[in-house]
Design brief:
- This protein has 171 residues and is α/β, with parallel strands linked by helices.
- Helix 2 packs antiparallel against helix 3, helix 4 crosses helix 5 and helix 4 runs parallel beside helix 6.
- It has one domain: Rossmann fold (3-Layer(aba) Sandwich).
- About 11% of the residues have low confidence.
- The chain contains 6 helices and 3 strands.
- Helix 6 links the parallel strand 2 and strand 3.
């Protein structure tokens, strides 16, 4: 059964992110658990409104509201790029690796939605290039999406919104 749609009124009642760990791996399992990505019609600011209403904050230490970041990028002039940090910079933390190995399509959906919300024409997911197993999981997830196609209306990442996976040397 798909996870319920997130709206401004239900954002705080949606099951937690890791609730989906029980579904089968791969794009088919992801779509069974969460439904296919449905990129909403371009309504400037709607997704950002939902993110703001959810209270989502960054995890980089400051806890800065994600919606504020997104809105600032959306209204700024010039070309926009989304960069997602999956490099696990926090000491003794394994959350990024867990999400990227077990729920990569959920992360890729989030990146695609963030790019659409702010009007970005490119997106990157940065991870440590020394983690070959993680890079393998991500390569398979991107290949699954490419094999499924980027048909208009399919909800999958379009060619212009497909995150590039960037492996960076470990610190």
């Amino acid at each position: 059964m798909p996870v319920p749609a997130i709206t401004a009124g239900t954002a705080r009642r949606v099951p937690r992110l890791l609730a989906g760990l029980g579904h089968p791996p791969g794009l088919a399992g992801h779509e069974h658990a969460y439904g296919p990505l449905r990129v909403p019609p371009r309504r400037p600011g709607r997704l950002i409104d939902v993110v703001e209403a959810s209270g989502l904050t960054g995890r980089g230490g400051a806890g800065y509201p994600a919606g504020c970041k997104m809105r600032a990028v959306a209204v700024a002039p010039g070309r926009k790029t989304v960069v997602a940090n999956g490099a696990e910079g926090e000491p003794a933390s394994g959350k990024d690796r867990l999400l990227l190995t077990r729920l990569p399509h959920l992360v890729l959906d989030g990146i695609a939605l963030a790019a659409q919300a702010v009007g970005a024409d490119q997106a990157y997911l940065c991870v440590h290039g020394t983690d070959g197993a993680l890079l393998g999981h991500l390569d398979r997830a991107v290949a699954e999406r490419e094999a499924a196609g980027s048909r208009p209306g399919s909800g999958r990442c379009s060619a212009g919104r497909r995150p590039a996976i960037q492996g960076q040397p470990a610190c």
